[in-house]
Automatic annotation (TrEMBL):
Domain of life: Archaea
Organism: Methanobacterium lacus (strain AL-21)
Protein name: DUF366 domain-containing protein
Pfam families cross-referenced by the UniProt entry: DUF366 (PF04017)
InterPro entries: aa-tRNA-synth_II/BPL/LPL (IPR045864), DUF366 (IPR007162)
Amino acid sequence: MKHLKLENETCYDGSQIEPYWAFKTFGIKDSSIVSWTGPMEIHPNNLIDFEDIGIEIKGDNMLHFIIEHFDSQPADLNLCYHRQRIFVLIVKDLLNDWGMVTSREGDDLFFDKGNIKGKLSVSIATCSVSSMKIHFALNLTENGTPADVETAALLEAGLSIEASHVEEIAEIACDKYIQEISDIKSDITKTKVF
């Protein structure tokens, strides 16, 4: 599995969740994670989650991850959601290591802002015929987030996490996820089945 970090700020508009995006855009012919920072404004035609129809999903600056797996054929939505939760838990543990204690509800992370719980992340998992796709993003700032959602942001939490740390956090999260998937595959190869 490969990790590509984009150097240029890119807007997540929902089109990146389409199958083969990393291959068509960057020539990656393998399961991959692409990470970058940038705004998010999902075009209504690119919404994946039926619960999100009619609501705004946006933010001015976020840390994005697009994960695509080709190792299960046909693609398995159940497995994809399990992998999404693995990634969310990796990020949750990593943020805890940086002093940002979060809580998790499903695939969402929240940060306690005193007496208010702010939504720190967004995520979706989906499948095509040939691949499993996950988008996960953390708010870096609360600017541009929907007015009707109480949000939290990595760089505005009053902690020691600074903009210069974002790239390191992304790199560690991707490395840990790639290692976790590799470890699972290794465990499968050494396990006696009945």
